[in-house]
Amino acid sequence: MTFETLGLAEPLLRAISDAGYTTPTPIQAQAIPAVLNGGDLLAGAQTGTGKTAGFTLPLLHRLSTGEKVLNKRGKIAIRALVLTPTRELAAQVEESVQTYGKYLPLKSMVMFGGVGMQPQINKLRDGVDILVATPGRLLDHAQQGTLDLSQVQILVLDEADRMLDMGFVHDIKKVLALLPAKKQSLLFSATFSDEIKNLADRLLNAPALIEVARRNQTNDAIAQKVHPVGRERKKELLAHLIKGGQDGQPWHQVLIFTRMKHGANRLTDYLNDQGISAMAIHGNKSQGARTKALADFKAGDLTCLVATDIAARGIDIDQLPHVVNFELPNVAEDYVHRIGRTGRAGAQGEAVSLVCVDENGFLKDIERLIKREIPKEIVPGFAPDPNERAEPIVLGRTVLNPNGSRGRNPNPPAGANGRGGRGGGGGGGRGGDSRGGSRDGGRDNQGRSGGGGRPAGHTGVGGAKTAPKPHAEHAPRAAGAQPARGNNGGAPRHNNGPRLTQPKR
After folding, report:
1. CA pair distance 497, 470, nearest whole angstrom
2. How many CA atoms lie within 13 A of 314 on its CB side?
3. CATH assignment of 222-391, given 3.40.50.800, 3.40.50.300, 2.60.120.260, 3.40.50.720?
4. Does the 3-211 domain belong in CATH 3.40.50.300?
5. CB-based contact 59:156 (threshold 8 Å)
6. What's the predicted TM-score (pTM) here?
7. Tens of pLDDT along 202-247?
8. Contact 474, 411 (CB under 8 A)
9. SS3 call for 76
10. How far is it, in rounded angstroms, from Cα 486 to Cα 66?
């Protein structure tokens, strides 16, 4: 099968050819005709299978062959809306729209938090056909009256599973209330959970169903491996592997995952000290720093990108050879998302996990989820001490004990894992850099929400009274979280329940 057989317009075929693609991936071969038919779609495909082109190509075709629509100001009206959970993914999707739509007379823009609103307002005033956005910033514009979604004909929810994980279900409902009842709705997801199916039942009308990958299965193109190692020698082993100490071949473009933002910073400093170029990407970094790190990594100018789970969404790099779990995730499903950054679109990739005795329980959960045992290989010179005993893993205010129980950290770090005051400050997400966290992307990598203050640039010290009151609702917060009290920006209180619950309205 070729793209020519799918019925796409000639300008799209030319752009596809320019990008070097000739054969559609399985998700593209099934999704493109389904979207072109005009009906709703529920599509499940693993990260890296080409699902972004699976909806951008037919979306561009439908808009380019349809009639232009004007808004009440006589400008081009928004006819397609793509919602994504993170800024990086939104930028990636809009980049695909630009790439495939370069020969079409269509205008697009991307909209997310962490940057000023005025440039976005100016673009909206000029009129756009396609809007790619994160839910929080979209609702900010809607509340200020700078956005008209009454003419939307096509809605896409991309990475819908992660949007639900991040607590955006209420924001999604608010966005749906701004859209026409009659529209084409497309829901794309890396996994098909029961929650996704429930969302699809509410959103979609007699959808076509496509499921390319089996539920919670990893990509067969990814070679998975576990290196057992002592907890204190992980950094040393990682540097050894990257420098080619195992097989004499230095690694290039290594995406490394840590559980916590401060862990990402420490690991980045260590790698740079070892002469290995590295940058961290997580919620406490400014949008400019995140964008630069990702651009340098994609260009091959940066050897290592150290990331937390949420910040890594949207990283789409051809031929990314190595993903390293410096620390295993405490949520097994995140392992599938992490290693899906490599082995994309048929390319081969390697996923390496450095596992100490503290993480054996996490490893068992992952193997149970993916229904396979991951090969173990001890690197010569880095064998773990057989007498080393498992110790609790501290995640901010929560302690995960080796027996699987959860406890409360009696000495949590300031501002850990909770919700900051109205300007950010104390909580997870953007709070740690003394700027109000953007509403989207303010959730830390442990499933807990950061403060939902104004976008970066509105400074505050971290207390409830030190920054301007936000103009929209706060980001979702973890169960039992309380806003920071008083003026001192102290650490918020937080219950020990590990799961998110929706905030009361």
Report:
1. 27
2. 28
3. 3.40.50.300
4. yes
5. yes
6. 0.56
7. 889 999 998 875 544 555 667 899 999 999 999 999 999 999 987 7
8. no
9. strand
10. 55
